[in-house]
Design goal:
The protein has about 280 residues and is α/β, with parallel strands linked by helices. It is built from twelve helices and eight strands. Strands 1, 2, 3, 4, 5, 6, 7 and 8 form an eight-stranded mixed β-sheet that branches. Helix 1 links the parallel strand 1 and strand 2. Helix 1 crosses helix 12. The radius of gyration is 18 Å and the shape is globular. It starts with a strand and ends with a helix.
Length: about 280
C-alpha cells in the first residue's frame, strides 16, 4: 500500500480554507496516512482523523463574536488573544466535543510543528492524543506577540510557522510515497520582510531569545524558498498541491461569519475542481 502524506500550512483563519479542503477529502474518501500541520493546519487537521466533518467551520462561526474565544479582552486579561481555557479546552471538551476516541482508533500519524525559543528551530510533536496533548496544539498556534510562551517539559515554544511554515522537507524525510500539500496563500504570493517597528517590538519582547528573533526576521526568506521548492516539485509531478485560487483576505481580527463561510466554500470549490486529478496522482506510480 502506498503511504500518503498531507502537509497543512497554517495562517490563522486562512485555515478555514484548509477545513473546506479536508471536508471535501472526506466526501471523496481520500485516505491519508500521515499529517504534518502548522498552527491552524494542525488544529483543523486533527478533525480529519476523527472524521468530524464541518467541525472547524462550525465552532469558529458559532463563537466568532464570543469574547471568551478570540478577543482583545482575552489578551488584556490573560495575555492570550486566543483564549487558552475557552478556545482549546472548553470547546474541545464541552461545547463542540472533539472525538478523541475516533482519532486514536484511526491509528494514523499526526505531527504538529512548534518553534523552540532557545534556538529558533522547529520541533515536530507527534500527536497521539489531542486532548492530552492540547498544549502541543497550543504551541504550534501560539502567535508571537499575541500569545504567552507555551512551556512543555521545561522547553519554551511559539508558533511553528516561524521555523517551518510549510514542512515539506520533514514529510519527505518520513518516506511517503505520495505527498499532498495544502497552502493557504495563492500561488504567486511572496512573504514580505517584517516591518521595522515589529522587529523592534520583537527584539524587546523576546530579548532573552536572540536565535528566535533571528528566525522571525529571516522567516520570509525561508518561506519564499520553500514555496519555490514546492512549485518545482509540483511541476515535476512529485507532489500534489492545493492552494487558494484567489487571495483569502482574512486575518485573525475578522469576526464576520459570512467571510468564514466564504473562505471555507472556496476550499471546497477549489478541491472539487481538482479531485479527479488528485485521485489520478494518488493512483499513479
Amino acid at each position: 500500500m502506498k503511504k500518503i502524506g498531507l502537509v497543512l500550512e497554517g495562517g490563522g483563519l486562512r485555515g478555514l480554507y484548509t477545513a473546506g479542503v479536508l471536508d471535501t477529502f472526506m466526501d471523496n474518501n481520500i485516505d491519508i496516512d500521515t499529517i504534518i500541520g502548522v498552527s491552524a493546519g494542525a488544529l483543523f487537521g486533527v478533525n480529519y482523523f476523527s472524521k468530524q466533518r464541518g467541525r472547524a467551520l462550525r465552532y469558529n462561526k458559532k463563537y466568532s463574536n464570543d469574547k471568551r474565544y478570540m478577543s482583545l479582552r482575552s489578551f488584556i486579561l490573560t495575555g492570550n488573544y486566543i483564549n487558552k481555557k475557552f478556545a482549546y479546552y472548553t470547546i474541545s471538551n464541552e461545547l463542540d466535543k472533539f472525538d478523541n476516541k475516533a482519532f486514536k482508533k484511526s491509528k494514523k500519524k499526526m505531527y504538529a510543528v512548534a518553534t523552540r525559543l532557545k534556538d529558533g528551530q522547529a520541533e515536530y510533536f507527534e500527536i497521539k492524543d489531542p486532548i492530552k496533548q492540547m498544549e502541543e496544539l497550543r504551541a504550534t498556534s501560539a502567535i508571537p506577540g499575541l500569545t504567552k510562551i507555551v512551556k512543555i517539559n521545561k522547553e519554551k515554544y511559539l508558533d511553528g510557522g516561524v521555523a517551518d511554515s510549510i514542512p515539506i522537507d520533514k514529510m519527505q524525510e518520513l518516506g511517503m510515497d505520495k505527498i499532498i500539500v495544502v497552502e493557504t496563500q495563492p500561488k504567486n504570493y511572496k512573504k514580505k520582510p517584517l516591518k521595522k517597528s515589529i522587529i523592534r517590538f520583537m527584539k524587546i519582547k523576546y530579548i532573552k531569545y536572540p536565535k528566535f528573533i533571528k528566525a522571525m526576521i529571516n522567516r520570509h526568506e525561508r518561506y519564499n524558498e520553500v514555496k519555490e521548492k514546492i512549485m518545482d516539485l509540483e511541476n515535476k509531478k512529485e507532489i500534489f498541491v492545493i492552494r487558494p485560487s484567489k487571495d483569502l483576505n482574512i486575518d485573525i481580527k475578522n469576526k464576520d461569519e459570512k467571510k468564514y463561510q466564504e473562505v471555507y466554500d472556496l476550499g471546497v470549490k477549489d478541491t472539487k475542481k481538482i479531485i479527479k486529478d488528485l485521485k489520478e496522482y494518488l493512483r499513479s506510480r
